[in-house]
Design goal:
The structure holds two protein chains of two kinds. Chain A is an alpha/beta fold. Helices cover 40% and strands 28% of the residues of chain A. In chain A, the strands form three sheets. Chain A has a six-stranded mixed beta sheet with strand order 6-9-10-3-11-12, sandwiched between helices. Chain A has a four-stranded antiparallel beta sheet with strand order 2-1-4-5, with helices on one face. Chain A has a two-stranded antiparallel ribbon with strand order 7-8. By secondary structure, chain B is an alpha/beta fold. Chain B contains ten helices and 20 strands. In chain B, the strands form two sheets. Chain B has a ten-stranded mixed beta sheet with strand order 2-1-5-8-10-12-14-16-18-20, with helices on one face. In chain B, strands 3, 4, 6, 7, 9, 11, 13, 15, 17 and 19 form a ten-stranded mixed beta sheet that branches. The chains are: A alpha/beta, B alpha/beta. Chain A: Keywords: ATP-binding, Nucleotide-binding. Chain A: Residues 2-246 form the ABC transporter domain.
């Protein structure tokens, strides 16, 4: 589904990604871990199409199509979804209206008519139940005054509504208490299927207890320096990142 | 002949034929003298530093437009908030259009300035209120000298008006260029409550210059919600002079939505004559091309324990220019004043300009006054967030603009009006998205 070849990316001439290779197949869950500043969030943003980053070498293929020239919204239309580490507050636009706009713009791009209001309401009801979201919450302004946990839960609600092919969860566990973590993880697990894939970017092991990865990659200094199964995450949790740094620098 | 000379000589030629109370003749004659002495304001005046009238004064305006009363409701329906029942005072080329209007004398007066200025039964009101708070500067004086028509609204004590009042001034372009000088007088008595929507709408590509004066009196505990829709054609210019005199515990709000026109100057003045008064001014300006909108506001805090709130948002595209000049005066007696002022702007193009200038003159020592102005570009991380959800660039930008203007929209109390303004903004931003905000 996703194939990243020798990806180099920089911002304002500062190289952040220095040759990433990654292949994610349908039905798989990949975790990307690594110390602060290793380039995890940059990788997520570059896949989702943030324009501030310049891809200087390599490419990103989604279903064998190079998506580098596509705008962020076009990538979204093709099924890429990024759950933000810091979701942006949009006063005056309710969660419901925002989702309606996002879904109908995606449908428009595919040549479809707007989703009938009845179907939209039904979908909103189902997905909000999945994430244990109160209906009142949906009429609040998007992310405005939301707690950290509410913001993250809302991100996964959006993921549930948009039904992406490839979901990238960027530090979705930060700011979550244990109950919220369980709800969010449960939501992600229920949305998982053999046709979609998830990339979980995280600092810590604890989210991976709930969303169990098939592969774990360690990103350090702009490169994937180690890959393994889920046991690698436990090893990192126990030993920290210093031994990885030493291995790389040796 | 310059426009000034034309106006002065027209006044001299026709004043004797105008049928108004004799006291009004004296006021008008005095006013034309002021205008003749001062002339149109120029950029040399501090208050007009960023707004030049030269480009609008160059046309050969007809100052007494002919009576062309051809409009049918269906032709102009879209300029009404027609979804709601409302009183309507409608003018075409400065003349009253009875077939488009719905006035009343039943328990309140929603009628015409021409009646108030001529009929004996209104003489006391006119003597008490007419030209009492309008500034004696050149433009208001010019309007006073030519004042003959407009809206006259008088809401008696304890009356909560059951539906909004719409005032619309149409210009049809039956002549090459037209200058209009509507004059409105609004008296809201003790405990009364009224909502008013005002619009100036040109239906022609010919130049139109409107120099309007509105005097609003809110007596004790009265509430006035006033909405100005400025979405005129590219060759229409408006100088709006509005004066609000408030008595104790009254609440007056003026919303100004400036989306169109060639040049728009809003002189909006509040005078607080009593305690525990609340004055609110809010505005959204969204313009492009070479449009110019200037908000010149004044709140005069005269007595203690009063508040004023100003919140103006501006979005400037292309080579448009904006001005915000907000003056707050707090007199020595006006202790415990709370005065807030905010002016936030987004420049969408390198060629757009905004000049924003808060002016605080505070003579009391126990007051809370704040002001803040910001000028920025669109938040790129918010843009990426929206686009990553599949919302295209143009729509994402529009959504952020809606969000930016939201706290002004939030205080619009008439849902149909809010809906209409939302649609005008969507059209202005070139998007077709049905946000029901």
């Amino acid at each position: 589904m996703l194939k990243i070849n020798n990806l180099h990316a920089s911002i304002e001439d500062k190289a952040i990604l220095k040759g990433i290779n990654l292949e994610v197949k349908a039905g798989e869950v990949h975790a990307i871990m690594g110390p602060n500043g290793s380039g995890k969030s940059t990788l997520a943003s570059v896949i989702a199409g943030k324009e501030e980053y310049e891809v200087t070498e390599g490419n990103i293929l989604l279903d064998n199509e190079d998506i580098e020239e596509l705008a962020a919204e076009e990538r979204a239309h093709k099924g890429v979804f990024l759950s933000f580490q810091y979701p942006v507050e949009i006063p005056g636009v309710s969660v419901t209206n925002f989702m309606k706009t996002a879904i109908n713009e995606t449908r428009k791009a595919k040549g479809l008519d707007d989703m009938p209001a009845k179907d939209m309401l039904k979908m909103i009801r189902e997905k909000s139940e999945l994430l244990e979201i109160d209906r009142k919450f949906l009429s609040r302004s998007l992310n405005e005054g939301f707690s950290g946990g509410e913001k993250k839960r809302n991100e996964i609600f959006q993921m549930a509504m948009l039904e992406p092919k490839l979901a990238i969860l960027d530090e979705t566990d930060s700011g979550l208490d244990i109950d919220a973590l369980r709800i969010v993880a449960n939501g992600v697990n229920k949305l998982k299927s053999k046709d979609n894939a998830v990339i979980v970017i995280t600092h810590y092991q604890r989210l991976l207890d709930h969303i169990v990865p098939d592969f774990v990659h360690v990103l350090y200094n702009g490169k994937i320096v180690k890959s393994g199964g889920k046991e690698l995450a436990h090893e990192l949790e126990a030993k920290g990142y210093d031994w990885i740094k030493e291995e790389v620098n040796a | 002949m310059s426009l000034k000379e034309k106006l002065v000589s027209s006044f001299m030629a026709f004043e004797d034929t105008v049928d108004v109370h004799s006291s009004i003749h004296d006021i008008r004659t005095e006013a034309i003298k002021t205008f003749e002495a001062e002339g149109f304001p120029t950029k040399r005046l501090e208050n007009w530093k960023y707004t030049s009238l030269n480009s609008v004064l160059k046309h050969d305006y007809s100052v007494f437009p002919k009576h062309e009363n051809k409009l049918e409701f269906n032709d102009v329906k879209k300029y009404f908030i027609h979804e709601i029942d409302a009183y309507k005072i409608i003018f075409i080329d400065g003349k009253y259009a009875s077939h488009l209007s719905q006035t009343t004398h039943d328990g309140l007066d929603v009628c015409l300035m021409s009646a108030a200025l001529t009929k004996p039964k209104y003489k006391v009101i006119i003597d008490n209120y007419f030209n009492k708070i309008a500034a004696k500067d050149s433009l208001s004086s010019l309007n006073t000298a030519f004042s003959s028509e407009g809206a006259y609204i008088n809401i008696p004590k304890n009356k909560v008006v059951d539906k909004p009042i719409q005032i619309i001034h149409f210009s049809t372009g039956s002549e090459a260029a037209v200058m209009l000088q509507p004059r409105n007088l609004i008296v809201v008595n003790e405990n009364a409550h009224v909502q008013i929507i005002e619009r100036h709408q040109s239906l022609t590509d010919n130049p139109v210059l409107t120099n309007s004066v509105t005097e609003i009196f809110t007596n004790k505990r009265a509430i006035v919600d006033y909405y100005k829709i400025q979405n005129d054609k590219e060759n229409a210019s408006l100088i709006d002079n509005t004066f609000v005199n408030q008595k104790q515990e009254s609440l007056a709000k003026v919303h100004t939505f400036s989306f169109g026109g060639k040049l728009t100057r809003n002189n909006l003045n509040f005078y607080q004559n009593g305690e525990r008064i609340d004055s609110t001014m809010k505005g959204i300006t969204i313009i492009g091309n070479k449009q110019h909108v200037d908000h010149n506001t004044l709140v005069h805090h005269i007595e203690p324990n009063c508040e004023s709130h100003q919140d103006y948002k501006g979005i400037f595209n292309d080579s448009s220019t904006g001005v915000f000049n907000g003056k707050v005066v707090v007199e020595k007696l006006a202790q415990k004043t709370n005065a807030f002022q905010a002016n936030n702007n987004v420049l969408m193009s390198d060629k757009a300009t905004i000049n924003t200038k808060p002016q605080l003159e505070i003579f009391a020592d126990d007051v809370k006054c704040s002001h803040g102005c910001t000028i920025g570009q669109l938040d790129e991380s918010a843009m990426f967030y929206l686009r990553s959800r599949g919302i295209p660039e143009k729509e994402a930008r529009a959504l952020l603009m809606f969000a930016f203007s939201n706290n002004v929209m939030d205080s619009v109390k008439i849902p149909e009006l809010k809906n209409r303004i939302t649609k005008i903004i969507a059209k202005k931003l070139g998007v077709n998205i049905g946000f029901d905000l």
